[in-house]
Predict the structure.
Amino acid sequence: MQAIGKRYWAIAEGYIPPASSSTDRTLISHEAACILNANEREARIEITILFSDREPAGPYRITVPAQRTLHLRFNDLTDPEPIPVGTDYSSVFESDVPVVVQHTRLDSRKAELALLSTIAYGSD
């Protein structure tokens, strides 16, 4: 399979809603990066989180196995520190192999759910 994607990605919009209308993990408000690694070798990725009013957080280090996908919830990132809820942020991804990154948010603060999804900005 031909390698597809880019090595650098940015998601300019980030916000983890501070509440949820459910305790079911599938319906908890969250922000996610859906990462596709269509390569024949694993992708080692570093994520840096940027804020409007403080120094960046990270790098968060993750691995996506070869020819696999990972739906990474920003809510689950804890090392080196959790990403604060109810706070605007942006994220930058740097991968050692080309990958594809899509951004998704589930906002379940109200019973009427809101889902947002868009492709991130990729660059070589």
